User: What shape does this take?
Amino acid sequence: MKPTRLCAVPLLLLLLSLCAVGESSPRIIHVFVALADNASQGIVPVSPMLGNGEDPARNLYWGSAFGLKTFFSRSPDWKLLLSQKRLKPEVLERCVFKYLNADVYLVADAYRGREIQSAILSFLDAAAGLGAERIKVNDGHREVILDAGRSSLLAYIGHDGLMDFPLPRTPRGNNDATREAIVLACASKQYFAQALRESGAFPLLWTTSLMAPEAYTLKSALDGWIAGETKEQIRDRAATAYAKYQKCGFNAAHKLMATGW
Assistant: This one.
């Protein structure tokens, strides 16, 4: 009987290991989008339709062809699971996407154009690991509870509002968790550096000059992040996508994108 009892120990450990793998948490990306707004932001004016910060369905950074919701909804790599309207006064729509080939979810919030400061502060709070929010979705096979307060990757997309106003506060990181951040806005490395340092998040991708923060750059960067690529490979992916859509050449796009401090 002794050999049988000895064999039961490694078998039990194996079963416990398999259970732990099955209960592993999904990776979560949380994106904060400040809708383009001709009336309230210091942007080069776009058409009234694209620059209406109260209309996410047609906004430059959300509902247009290269806006986040439209671009990710049309991608063969992502599936739209949820769309919530008027989530709170400053957030006009929330979308949740599932990456089809990995246990990765993307939560994207569209902030009113005039609420750009709230969008930036919410992004920095999340980058600092502050706050907690649970989101219930069904991925077609099961119900999943996403802990958005523990997102691994945070992103901000929109006008660089820090060119126009100072922050009323600077969120400080409250734990040792590893978080990464993407800031697709004009010259974000110069303007977001101090606040991002305070948050404790690592700048995976940001910019050195004027740019169009459209969704193809984010999507390409996320492809590399999900695949476990290095930060330089992710920068290359983002630059390749930007050069393709903006027709500016890879070298120019590569100088525009930056990673790390």
Q: What stands out?
A: Residues 25-211 form one domain. The beta strands are 27-34, 78-88, 91-99, 104-111, 134-138, 143-147, 153-157, 180-184, 202-207, 257-258.
